[in-house]
Backbone:
């Protein structure tokens, strides 16, 4: 069979045509990324221009007011801080313990696989559903009312799946040879987990916690559902106080008609972004440290 | 329970992983304070046999099942009343790949001792163990550096020192030199000769020259027609290498297969 005649003689012309197709694809990909980046940039520039003039001590020291130049984020910042810390305190031990159980103790049977699949599914549940759950369970069921504690518990439910999944990954990344080394010395499983597995998994676990916290800080819907949408003009003094948070305050200001409030909202967005970015940088730093170790 | 200086007797030992049998009916007497080498082709159950001594098989696979027993002195390793933790405390292990803890050199030695409630002076123990593992002179000035900063051969000697520090009666070694260069291998072999004065050593090796060089006794394993590991023969290393009784041993040792 003469296969030669079925191939083109003009090899270089053929390759040129193919390279042209490749080039077009490359340009399309570049356009896609430019689109994403430029939209983000426009947003950032717009927000920065609007918000910068309002970034002044007043913004941090004052409670919200019906006069834009007397308005501040004091109560919203306090609420966000309280909620983030309470959520971390509650979610961390529960999430890590669940991850340890699933990775180190649970045997691989139908029941544990069922739990695993459902945790992965829970991470994808819309946040407003958690809000409804929080409203029924914490606000009304446990009678916590619209307290920051009820908000934190709701956020705990929201970020637990993330924390469990990332903690499990971190625990799984601890080399088996390390566990074997410990057990072969006559250490118990508890000692092995406590002194070897957990310390080495900790940067990864903390990364998950921080990513979960930054999600909790940015969430609005579940907190509106449990009734945090309130005008608050006093300091937050304890976990049972009613509260508001940054995204809700920003939402509040944007929904007001005056232009000044919109600019104030832009300043609030800048602060929220700064908090989220710094949390994410800490997470990245921790992740890099983890990679260095192994 | 002191089991020092006692010989080991393995009786009808069989191990399964799920429904797959790994080794069948192994019977062997292993003399105390000697080096016994386990040799044989890949997949013949050498490592499974070795892990049977510190009940590590049940750790690596939760469907592992062991029948028969291993008696060391008066101690039955598979006594249902005996905790595997105690077995592992008394029978140390050195692994194929050096696996120091990502802690300081000092802490690598001290951790196991502390976990086992060592009441003596930890500094002395660390020095003594490192000296016994022929590593002290190389690391005495950097005890607080990470164990991972050492070379592969040093890491493996650190792992040996770590095992020695909890004062085991037997040291199991699973191809301890397979990840090391010839010079590091030589040092470990020298160390093994030295350690055999105080410890019973059982070593799995792929390297027949190593078995011939270092061991006092050799056991040859192979696969039977059902791909189950069996012990073919065992005896003084010289006899196994010069006058093997079994044709399969002879074939393996002379390099016809393996």
Residues:
């Amino acid at each position: 069979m003469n296969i030669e005649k079925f191939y083109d003689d003009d090899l270089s012309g053929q390759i040129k045509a193919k390279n042209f197709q490749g080039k077009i694809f490359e340009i399309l990909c570049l356009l896609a990324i430019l689109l994403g980046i430029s939209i983000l940039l426009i947003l950032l520039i717009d927000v920065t221009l609007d918000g910068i003039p309002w970034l002044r001590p007043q913004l941090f020291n004052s409670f919200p007011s019906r006069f834009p130049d007397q308005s501040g984020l004091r109560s919203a910042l306090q609420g966000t801080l309280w909620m983030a810390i309470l959520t971390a305190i509650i979610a961390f031990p529960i999430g890590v313990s669940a991850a340890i159980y699933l990775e180190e103790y649970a045997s691989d049977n139908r029941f544990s696989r069922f739990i695993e699949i459902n945790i992965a599914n829970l991470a994808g549940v819309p946040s407003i559903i958690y809000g409804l759950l929080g409203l029924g369970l914490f606000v009304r069921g446990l009678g916590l009312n619209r307290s920051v504690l009820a908000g934190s518990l709701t956020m705990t439910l929201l970020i637990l799946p993330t924390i469990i999944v990332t903690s499990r990954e971190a625990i799984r990344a601890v080399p088996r040879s390390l566990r074997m080394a410990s057990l072969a010395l006559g250490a118990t499983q508890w000692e092995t987990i406590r002194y070897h597995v957990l310390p080495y998994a900790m940067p990864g676990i903390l990364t998950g916690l921080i990513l979960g916290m930054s999600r909790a800080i940015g969430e609005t819907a579940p907190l509106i559902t449990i009734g945090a949408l309130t005008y608050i003009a006093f300091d937050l003094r304890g976990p049972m106080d009613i509260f508001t948070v940054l995204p809700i305050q920003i939402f509040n200001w944007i929904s007001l008609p005056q232009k000044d409030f919109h600019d104030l909202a832009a300043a609030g967005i800048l602060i929220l972004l700064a908090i989220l970015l710094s949390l994410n940088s800490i997470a990245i730093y921790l992740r890099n440290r983890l990679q260095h170790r192994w | 329970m002191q089991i020092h200086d006692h010989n080991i007797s393995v009786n009808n030992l069989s191990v399964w992983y799920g429904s797959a049998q790994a080794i069948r009916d192994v019977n062997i007497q292993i003399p105390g304070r000697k080096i016994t080498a386990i040799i044989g082709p890949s997949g013949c159950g050498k490592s499974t046999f070795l892990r049977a001594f510190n009940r590590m098989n049940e750790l690596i696979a939760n469907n592992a099942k062991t029948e028969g027993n291993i008696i060391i002195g008066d101690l039955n390793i598979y006594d249902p009343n005996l905790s595997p933790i105690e077995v592992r405390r008394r029978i140390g292990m050195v692994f194929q790949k050096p696996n120091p803890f990502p802690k300081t050199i000092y802490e690598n030695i001290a951790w196991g001792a502390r976990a086992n409630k060592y009441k003596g002076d930890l500094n002395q123990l660390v020095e003594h163990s490192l000296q016994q593992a022929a590593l002290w002179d190389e690391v005495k000035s950097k005890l607080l550096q990470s164990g991972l900063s050492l070379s592969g051969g040093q890491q493996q000697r650190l792992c040996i020192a770590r095992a020695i520090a909890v004062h085991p009666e037997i040291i199991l070694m699973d191809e301890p030199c397979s990840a090391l260069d010839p010079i590091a291998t030589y040092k470990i072999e020298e160390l093994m000769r030295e350690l055999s004065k105080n410890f019973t050593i059982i070593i799995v090796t792929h390297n027949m020259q190593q078995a011939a060089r270092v061991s006092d006794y050799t056991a040859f394993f192979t696969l039977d027609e059902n791909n189950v590991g069996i012990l073919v023969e065992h005896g003084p290393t010289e006899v196994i290498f010069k006058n093997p009784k079994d044709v399969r041993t002879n074939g393996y040792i002379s390099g016809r297969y393996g």
Q: What stands out?
A: The radius of gyration of chain A is 26 Å. The domain at 59-293 of chain A is CATH 1.10.3720.10 (MetI-like fold).
